[in-house]
Design goal:
alpha/beta; binds shikimate-3-phosphate; 8 helices; 54% helix; five-stranded parallel sheet; Rossmann fold; 5 strands
Length: 175
Protein backbone atom coordinates (compact mmCIF):
# COMPACT_ATOMS: atom_id res chain seq x y z
CA UNK A 1 0.00 0.00 0.00
CA UNK A 2 1.43 3.38 -1.03
CA UNK A 3 2.11 6.15 1.47
CA UNK A 4 0.12 9.36 1.23
CA UNK A 5 2.60 12.22 1.49
CA UNK A 6 1.52 15.78 2.22
CA UNK A 7 3.92 18.44 0.95
CA UNK A 8 3.55 22.21 0.83
CA UNK A 9 4.55 25.49 2.38
CA UNK A 10 4.48 26.20 6.11
CA UNK A 11 0.98 27.00 7.34
CA UNK A 12 -0.89 25.18 4.59
CA UNK A 13 -2.35 22.65 7.05
CA UNK A 14 -0.25 19.52 6.42
CA UNK A 15 -0.22 18.34 10.04
CA UNK A 16 -3.89 19.08 10.78
CA UNK A 17 -5.10 17.54 7.53
CA UNK A 18 -2.69 14.60 7.84
CA UNK A 19 -4.02 13.62 11.27
CA UNK A 20 -7.58 13.87 10.05
CA UNK A 21 -6.91 11.91 6.90
CA UNK A 22 -5.08 9.17 8.79
CA UNK A 23 -8.04 8.89 11.19
CA UNK A 24 -10.51 8.64 8.30
CA UNK A 25 -8.45 6.01 6.46
CA UNK A 26 -7.38 4.06 9.55
CA UNK A 27 -3.72 4.61 8.68
CA UNK A 28 -0.76 5.53 10.86
CA UNK A 29 0.15 9.23 10.86
CA UNK A 30 3.77 10.42 10.92
CA UNK A 31 5.01 14.01 10.98
CA UNK A 32 8.61 14.40 9.77
CA UNK A 33 9.34 17.38 12.06
CA UNK A 34 8.14 15.45 15.12
CA UNK A 35 10.22 12.49 14.02
CA UNK A 36 13.32 14.73 13.76
CA UNK A 37 12.60 16.11 17.24
CA UNK A 38 12.23 12.59 18.60
CA UNK A 39 15.45 11.32 17.03
CA UNK A 40 17.58 14.35 18.00
CA UNK A 41 15.97 15.07 21.37
CA UNK A 42 15.81 18.76 20.35
CA UNK A 43 13.05 21.05 19.11
CA UNK A 44 13.22 22.35 15.52
CA UNK A 45 14.13 25.90 16.71
CA UNK A 46 16.90 24.43 18.90
CA UNK A 47 18.35 22.47 15.98
CA UNK A 48 18.38 25.58 13.74
CA UNK A 49 19.87 27.76 16.50
CA UNK A 50 22.48 25.33 17.85
CA UNK A 51 23.41 23.25 14.80
CA UNK A 52 22.21 25.26 11.78
CA UNK A 53 19.91 24.59 8.83
CA UNK A 54 22.42 22.28 7.08
CA UNK A 55 22.30 19.91 10.06
CA UNK A 56 18.50 20.13 10.15
CA UNK A 57 18.34 19.18 6.45
CA UNK A 58 20.58 16.16 7.00
CA UNK A 59 18.41 14.96 9.90
CA UNK A 60 15.38 15.52 7.66
CA UNK A 61 17.03 13.51 4.88
CA UNK A 62 17.62 10.56 7.25
CA UNK A 63 14.00 10.63 8.43
CA UNK A 64 12.74 10.66 4.82
CA UNK A 65 14.99 7.73 3.90
CA UNK A 66 13.63 5.76 6.84
CA UNK A 67 9.95 6.63 6.36
CA UNK A 68 9.98 6.08 2.60
CA UNK A 69 10.94 2.46 3.18
CA UNK A 70 7.65 1.94 5.03
CA UNK A 71 4.16 1.52 3.54
CA UNK A 72 0.59 2.61 4.17
CA UNK A 73 1.47 5.73 6.14
CA UNK A 74 0.08 9.23 6.01
CA UNK A 75 3.19 11.43 6.14
CA UNK A 76 3.10 15.18 6.82
CA UNK A 77 6.41 16.65 5.70
CA UNK A 78 8.20 19.87 6.65
CA UNK A 79 7.83 22.65 4.07
CA UNK A 80 11.43 22.28 2.86
CA UNK A 81 11.51 18.52 2.30
CA UNK A 82 11.02 18.89 -1.46
CA UNK A 83 14.15 21.07 -1.83
CA UNK A 84 16.25 17.88 -1.94
CA UNK A 85 15.54 15.91 -5.14
CA UNK A 86 16.60 12.70 -3.37
CA UNK A 87 13.83 13.21 -0.83
CA UNK A 88 11.34 13.66 -3.68
CA UNK A 89 12.59 10.53 -5.46
CA UNK A 90 12.37 8.45 -2.27
CA UNK A 91 8.89 9.68 -1.39
CA UNK A 92 7.58 9.22 -4.95
CA UNK A 93 8.84 5.65 -5.19
CA UNK A 94 6.07 4.32 -3.00
CA UNK A 95 3.93 7.35 -2.27
CA UNK A 96 1.30 9.67 -3.71
CA UNK A 97 2.38 13.29 -3.26
CA UNK A 98 -0.37 15.74 -2.38
CA UNK A 99 0.51 19.42 -2.18
CA UNK A 100 -1.47 21.68 0.16
CA UNK A 101 -1.39 25.29 -0.99
CA UNK A 102 -2.68 28.67 0.19
CA UNK A 103 -2.31 32.34 -0.73
CA UNK A 104 0.46 34.30 1.03
CA UNK A 105 -2.01 36.39 3.02
CA UNK A 106 -3.76 33.30 4.36
CA UNK A 107 -0.43 31.77 5.27
CA UNK A 108 0.52 35.02 7.00
CA UNK A 109 -2.67 34.97 9.08
CA UNK A 110 -2.05 31.35 10.05
CA UNK A 111 1.63 31.62 11.00
CA UNK A 112 1.88 35.08 12.60
CA UNK A 113 2.19 34.83 16.36
CA UNK A 114 3.60 31.30 16.13
CA UNK A 115 7.22 30.94 17.17
CA UNK A 116 8.23 27.44 16.16
CA UNK A 117 9.29 28.21 12.56
CA UNK A 118 12.89 29.46 12.37
CA UNK A 119 12.62 30.36 8.67
CA UNK A 120 9.79 32.81 9.33
CA UNK A 121 11.56 35.12 11.72
CA UNK A 122 11.31 38.61 10.21
CA UNK A 123 8.94 40.31 12.61
CA UNK A 124 8.15 43.56 10.72
CA UNK A 125 8.60 41.91 7.32
CA UNK A 126 6.86 38.60 7.72
CA UNK A 127 4.48 39.18 4.78
CA UNK A 128 7.40 39.89 2.40
CA UNK A 129 9.35 36.96 3.77
CA UNK A 130 6.44 34.61 3.08
CA UNK A 131 5.93 35.97 -0.46
CA UNK A 132 9.62 35.67 -1.36
CA UNK A 133 10.04 32.18 0.04
CA UNK A 134 6.76 31.01 -1.50
CA UNK A 135 7.85 32.23 -4.96
CA UNK A 136 11.24 30.52 -4.60
CA UNK A 137 9.60 27.27 -3.49
CA UNK A 138 6.81 27.14 -6.10
CA UNK A 139 8.77 25.01 -8.64
CA UNK A 140 9.61 22.49 -5.92
CA UNK A 141 5.98 22.00 -4.89
CA UNK A 142 5.09 21.39 -8.55
CA UNK A 143 6.36 17.79 -8.16
CA UNK A 144 3.03 16.91 -6.51
CA UNK A 145 0.60 14.47 -8.12
CA UNK A 146 -2.31 16.59 -6.93
CA UNK A 147 -2.62 20.08 -5.40
CA UNK A 148 -5.37 21.43 -3.18
CA UNK A 149 -5.94 25.05 -2.20
CA UNK A 150 -6.67 24.90 1.54
CA UNK A 151 -7.35 28.63 1.80
CA UNK A 152 -11.09 28.71 2.29
CA UNK A 153 -12.05 25.16 3.19
CA UNK A 154 -11.94 23.19 6.43
CA UNK A 155 -9.41 20.45 7.14
CA UNK A 156 -12.26 17.92 6.88
CA UNK A 157 -13.06 19.16 3.37
CA UNK A 158 -9.40 18.95 2.38
CA UNK A 159 -9.32 15.36 3.65
CA UNK A 160 -12.46 14.61 1.58
CA UNK A 161 -10.82 15.97 -1.56
CA UNK A 162 -7.78 13.79 -0.97
CA UNK A 163 -9.95 10.71 -0.43
CA UNK A 164 -11.88 11.47 -3.65
CA UNK A 165 -8.60 11.85 -5.54
CA UNK A 166 -7.30 8.52 -4.18
CA UNK A 167 -10.60 6.88 -5.20
CA UNK A 168 -10.22 8.24 -8.74
CA UNK A 169 -6.69 6.82 -8.93
CA UNK A 170 -8.03 3.44 -7.79
CA UNK A 171 -10.83 3.56 -10.37
CA UNK A 172 -8.25 4.21 -13.10
CA UNK A 173 -6.09 1.38 -11.83
CA UNK A 174 -3.31 3.78 -10.89
CA UNK A 175 -3.25 2.92 -7.19
C1 LIG B 1 10.47 24.34 7.08
C2 LIG B 1 9.19 24.01 7.48
C3 LIG B 1 8.87 23.53 8.84
C4 LIG B 1 10.10 22.84 9.46
C5 LIG B 1 11.28 23.76 9.42
C6 LIG B 1 11.65 24.19 8.00
C7 LIG B 1 10.69 24.84 5.71
O1 LIG B 1 7.80 22.61 8.78
O2 LIG B 1 10.40 21.65 8.79
O3 LIG B 1 11.00 24.88 10.23
O4 LIG B 1 11.85 24.85 5.24
O5 LIG B 1 9.69 25.22 5.04
P1 LIG B 1 6.25 23.04 8.55
O6 LIG B 1 6.04 23.17 7.06
O7 LIG B 1 5.48 21.90 9.12
O8 LIG B 1 6.02 24.31 9.29
Amino acid sequence: MKNIVLIGFMGTGKTTVGKRLAGRLGRQFVDTDLEIERVTGKTIPQIFAQDGEVRFRSEERLVIQKLSRREGLVIATGGGVVLDPENVADLKRNGVLICLAADPEIIYQRVKGKKHRPLLNKKGKLREQIKTLLAARAPFYAVADFTIDTGNISSGEVANKIINYLDSLRTNGEL
